[in-house]
Every structure is written in structure tokens, then in C-alpha cells.
Amino acid sequence: MAGCISAKLLAAQGLQVILVDRFKQSPPVFRAEKLEKDQIDLLAKFDLLSQRRPLADPLGVNVNYNDGRITEHHDVEQYGIRYHDTINQLRQEVSKLVEYRVAKVESIVEDPEHPQSQIIHLADAEPLHAPLVIVASGYRSGLLKKRGVQYREDKDLASISYGFDIERPDQSPFDSNAYGYFLKPDKNGIDYITIFRIGETMRANVFTQLKSSDPRVKELKNNTYPALQKYFPDLEKLTDPFQLISKVEMFATYFYQMRTPELNGVVAIGDAYQSVSPTTGTGLSKVLNDVDVLCNVFVPRWFQNQSFDHKEINEFYQFAQKKEADTHSSRSWKWYADPSSRSGLVYRLKQNKGVQWLVQKLKLRKLRH
Ligand SMILES: Cc1cc2nc3c(=O)[nH]c(=O)nc-3n(C[C@H](O)[C@H](O)[C@H](O)COP(=O)(O)OP(=O)(O)OC[C@H]3O[C@@H](n4cnc5c(N)ncnc54)[C@H](O)[C@@H]3O)c2cc1C
Predict the structure, then answer these.
(1) Three-class SS state of 355
(2) Which segments does the entry list as coiled coil (predicted)?
(3) Is the CB–ligand 1 distance for residue 279 below 6 Å?
(4) What's the chain's average pLDDT?
(5) Whose CA is nearest to atom 9 of ligand 1?
């Protein structure tokens, strides 16, 4: 997502861009399957919302079950998507504008003969040369480790997610396009189940902060429906009984963030820079925000100054809009992991509408004086 969209935006600015990926077509992968409002707004800003295929209708009504009561929300603008469908559609569009190479990147090294140039070594292909390389290689790709990049890691901040398709036993339609069942935030580790329509299929995601050694991890994977009935006791009240009609996909993540590297001519974005807990629904926000800041603020500046020095590249990582999105994502993760923690409380305070209003008022007062 980060690489494709960056390529599109930079080609539109008249830059010569080469997009490199291991795969011609993205294979089915378990990643973001629902677009949130802020993500829809950024896709629309990049003129890409209409290129999402299949073009699902907004989910519309989302029936939420929270703290033991049902709260209904109307007009929720969210879309159910299969990640690889979106990526393949984007790639098709982007490859009309930029050269698309299918190759595995093995390493990115500075050209010893040309200080403003990077050499991108590819498996089974001639190397590429460029003044700027955007690394958008996703979760734990390790591509920049060879270049000496280090990561701040917290393996205790971990998260396990499950995804599967469901239907009613008589195949009749569900009452709503989307359901959410949120458990009381505590250290229990199971956060919520979200059920939503992708095209004709109803998809379910279960998000947890369970550690891999927790016996519930296998229970949710191998004995899914009874485990759901156990951990979400009112689920059938919300959705009526259903059955699983696909295998249960499972994906585990832990927290890392790249330490600000001293790299000339190389910049990392999306999951390649910082990982995300799927529970928080902030992965694509982070990706799209990185793309926005990089392509609309920094890349034009670097090319105008013809300078790709690490000091200038590092200004991207320190840019307020970027840092805010990264911090929001990691704080939200910490809050789900431990709602009583200090960062959890800070996160909750920041989310509180009353506090937001007060901060805004204080900022305005400061401006007036
Ligand atoms: C289970 C799960 C559910 C999620 N749900 C949500 C959600 O509901 N909402 C949300 O906002 N976020 C969600 N996320 C997070 C979101 O999916 C990610 O943040 C986002 O997809 C990351 O995009 P990216 O472009 O950084 O990386 P990716 O989409 O992973 O792209 C990386 C690309 O790099 C290529 N690549 C890697 N190494 C090489 C190499 N050496 N050479 C060539 N190519 C290479 C890969 O082939 C791939 O195409 C979820 C994540 C997971 C795991």
C-alpha cells in the first residue's frame, strides 16, 4: 500500500519512479480488511478511493455491543476490502504511470563512486541506481538491517489477530452489514470481534493482545466457534448463530520502531518503519499519513535542493504530523495491552472529547495573547 501509493503520487509530480516488488500479483494476505473514515479521506485526497476494487458500498449501519449494551450507529462510513484485491488494483493503475519490476531486493548500498546515488541490488536482475530509495517493505522485512539500521523493539507488546469468513446456517442474510462486540478493556487480552461485509461475504476479525504462549491462542485458532461463544457470551444475541466457512487465518505482531538512522538517500515508511497492532485499526492511517508527508512535503524539497543527505532525510521522521500518527498508533496499542497503564491513561485522556475541547480552547487563548 505505502509503496504503490507513493509511486503514484511521485510519478504525478513528474519524477521518474520504478516500483519494485517480489510479486507481480499480491497473493492473498491477512492484513487490513476494513477502511476507516480517516483512511477513506486520505485515499480520496490521493484520488484513489474510486480505484479500490471491488467497489464496496459503505457498510452503513454498524451494530455495536459495548459494556453489556447494544449501541447502534448509523451512517458509519467504513468499507470492507480484501487487502490483496486493493493492492492488485492499485498496482494495475500505478503500472500505467511507472515502471514496475518484479524482483526481490537483496540490499541497498551507497554508490562509492557517486555519493548522491544508491545501488539497489536485485536477485537475478541487474542492479538499479537512484538518488532516493523509499523502503516500504512491510512488517519485519529486515531489508535495512544489512545497512546497519537498528530497531527499538518491545516483544512484550504483542498482538494476535484472527480472520475468517462466516455465514448463517441457512445462508440467509445477516440483519446488518457490520457488527462490533467490544469486551470491557482490561488486561484479559481479548479485545473485540468485528464482523463486516466484503462484497457478498461476511468476514470476521478477532483482535487480541495475547502472548503466543497463552493457551487461548490455540483455542481460538482450532476451536474457534466454541471459543467465541465462551469469550463473547452474547455474540449470538447480536448476530444470531453462524458457522465458519473458511480456514482461520492468524497473524502475530510485536512492536518495533526504527531508530533514526543515519542513511543518505534512503527513507523507510509504513510497517517498514513502525509496526502496528491490528486491534488499533491505525495501520493504514500510519501508512497513508507517511505517504502524505513524504510525497507532498519532503520528496519535492529534497529534489529541489538536490540533497538526500541523512540530516535532511531525518527531518521526515521528526515531522510533527508523522510523529503524531506514529505516537497515536503506539499509544493506542499500549492502551489495549494495559488500559490502566500511564500511557493508557494519557491515550484515553487524549481521546476524550472534553479534554480535546479544553486543549483546543487553551491553544486558541495562547494564540490570542
Ligand atoms: C492481521 C492484520 C489485520 C490488520 N487490520 C488492519 C485494519 O483493520 N486497519 C488498519 O488500518 N490496519 C490494519 N492492519 C495493518 C495494515 O495492514 C498494515 O499497517 C499495512 O498493510 C502495511 O502496509 P505497508 O505498505 O507498509 O506494507 P505491506 O503492505 O506489507 O507491503 C510490503 C511490500 O513489500 C514487498 N517486499 C518486502 N520485502 C521485499 C523485498 N526484499 N524485495 C521486494 N519486495 C519486497 C512485499 O511483497 C509487499 O508487497 C492489519 C495488519 C494485520 C497483520
Answers:
(1) helix
(2) none
(3) no
(4) 88
(5) 281
Ligand 1 pocket mutation pick from 276, 282, 322, 333 by most atoms within 8 angstroms of CB: 276
d(CA 19, CA 5): 10
Task: Among 3.40.20.10, 3.50.50.60, 1.10.40.50, 3.30.9.10, name the CATH number for the domain at 154-253.
Answer: 3.30.9.10
Kindly report, residue by residue over 231-271, the tens digit of the pLDDT.
999 899 888 999 999 999 999 999 999 997 789 999 999 99
Range list for CATH 3.50.50.60 in the chain: 2-57+76-152+257-337
Residues of the chain with CATH 3.30.9.10: 154-253
Contacts of 111 (CB under 8 A, 6+ apart): 117, 118, 119, 129
Task: Find the helix packing angle between 342-351 and 353-368, rounded to 10°.
Answer: 70
What residues have CB less than 8 Å from 109, skipping those under 6 apart?
A: 118, 119, 121, 147
Q: Is 59 helix (H, G, I), strand (E, B) or coil?
A: coil
Is the CATH number of domain 2-57+76-152+257-337 3.40.50.300? no
Residue with the larger pLDDT of the pair 167 and 147? 167
* 96 pLDDT more than 80: yes
pLDDT tens digit sequence for 272-283: 999 999 999 999
